[in-house]
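Bug report

Summary: structure tokens for Nucleotidyltransferase-like differ between web form and batch submission.
Environment: batch mode, default settings.
Steps: 1) Submit the sequence below via batch. 2) Compare with the web form result.

Sequence submitted:
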Amino acid sequence: MDEEFSVVFLHNIIDDTVESVIHIKPTNGQSTLIDGFDELYLVIVKERSEKIKIKNILHNSSNIQIRWVDQLYFTHIIENRFHRRFVQWALQGKVLYDKKHYMKQVRDRFFTYPSTFHSRTICVEFTRFLRHYLEAKEYVSQEQILDAYNSMFCALHHWARLAVIEAGEVPETVVWQQVSQIDYSIFKLYEELITTNDPLVKRIELLLLASEFSVISKMGECSAFLLNIMRERKEPWSVDELLHHPEFYGVQFDLILLLEKLSKRSLLKEVLVENEYGIEKKYTVE
């Protein structure tokens, strides 16, 4: 870290609106983590009119990027994990300034196990794995092998991220290096897909079998976040009610697909209710 720049930067940047300042400087050549820059400063501020403001600075031959981020938007990013690099920056960067211990609270809440963050992220990641697995299965049945390969590759990636999250760690951009140390069996499946000399369709079919077992064995456990929400009341839930539940605000995941699969596995019960359009299908926990 350029100490001279940091001292001057902090002196000039900190005012009543700044909650935290984080410094990120990759030490292992991962410049893509911060878009090819040498250093990144993340400044969390409250009540900004813009969600994000960016400046690119050249200082002593170093390319430095400064990002100001609205605090509410930043919290939304962290809670819903939709920007994985932001999550890495927030959790692994060096905290240079932290008024009222804001960033410490964010990190403590993130790493508390089990936590709402943790169980929701597992549920969301599982649905993404499920979606790509089912796509791969369908493409194979249609003999669209290259599309099946692409979907299977994506399914494996989400499976790897899921294993990392379940281990209480944060999925990084180098997720395969992470998962090779956490669950080598998933890493081995990844190698089987991309490196063996078997016919491509055979490789995909092998992984589909492994994925099928994982789907069956992990569906209830990975869906615990959704099931616990649905246990909050005895009345059945409509899809629309669940989609607009506060715990799912801003979260993008395949809720409808998950509800259908949970129902087919008898983990949810379908309830048919008459309404002005005919018969509506609702769901309740068995």
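Above is the batch result. After comparison, the two runs are identical; trailing whitespace caused the diff. The chain has a mean pLDDT of 86. The chain has three domains: 3-111, 112-220, 223-286.
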